[in-house]
Amino acid sequence: MTGEEILAEVMNAVIEGEEELAEKWVQEAINQQIDPLEVLNNGLTKGIEIVGKKFADGYYFLPDMLLGAKAMERGIGLLEPLLVGEKRKAAGKVIMGTVEGDLHEIGKNIVVMMLKTAGYQVNDLGVDVPAARFVEAVRAEKPQVVGISALLTTTIARQQEIIELLIEEGLRKEVKVIVGGAPINQRWADEIGADGYAEDAMRAVDLVRNLLKN
């Protein structure tokens, strides 16, 4: 098979959410000495971009996104040592977490994986994260972006609490804040003073990229 055909198989494995096939074809690409960055960009990333588009267009649903992300993650697991060897420079540092009182993480995890794929260094604080923990992480790690997820109408006010605490601690101007979650919309993001809102993982990556350009 040609290199292009192997990359197409990598891409299709992600689109179909087939973890074992993704691993198989990424390994084949490595065996054929295809540039790992090319495998990442023209195989795995291209596949997850198509998954994201199908999700945005209503052809795929959240479980499909998760399967695609898991397939991509399996492939990245093989590439990671080679990519580290090439000393990829991180595109930026991001902290992500789900607010206190909320245990939802599937959407957040997909965003984390896609940000990592796009070259960002991501610290996932997990779920049920108190406002003070977000602030501590900003102070200690000095990220460019903080992503705050809330999936319950009863917990979205925590996003505002975190932003207000960042202001109180004199850290708000040092970091961009993005918010997301099923009940969240642009109006809420504007109301609480967030820098941006994304309704899905693909848009979240684009949002981070655009915020760091400015």
Radius of gyration: 18 Å
Gross morphology: elongated
**How many structural domains can be distinguished in the coordinates?**
2
The share of residues in extended strands comes to 5-15%
Can you tell me the residue ranges where pLDDT is under 50 for at least 5 consecutive residues? Answer: none
Number of helices: 9
Q: Under the CATH scheme, which class of the largest domain?
A: Alpha Beta
Q: Give the N-to-C terminal Cα separation.
A: 43 Å
Protein structure class: alpha/beta
Strand order of the largest sheet: 2-1-3-4-5
On the 0 to 100 scale, the average pLDDT is 90
The second-level CATH architecture of the largest domain is: 3-Layer(aba) Sandwich
- Main β-sheet, in a few words? 5 strands, parallel
What's the gist of this structure?
With 214 residues, this protein is α/β, with parallel strands linked by helices. The chain contains 9 helices and 5 strands. Helix 8 (186-192) links the parallel strand 4 and strand 5.
Protein architecture, described:
With 214 residues, this protein is of the alpha/beta class. The chain folds into two domains: 3-85, Methyltransferase, Methionine Synthase (B12-binding Domains), Chain A, domain 1; 93-213, Rossmann fold (3-Layer(aba) Sandwich). The protein contains nine helices and five strands. A five-stranded parallel sheet has the order 2-1-3-4-5, sandwiched between helices. The radius of gyration is 18 Å and the shape is elongated. The model has no long low-confidence stretch (mean pLDDT 90).
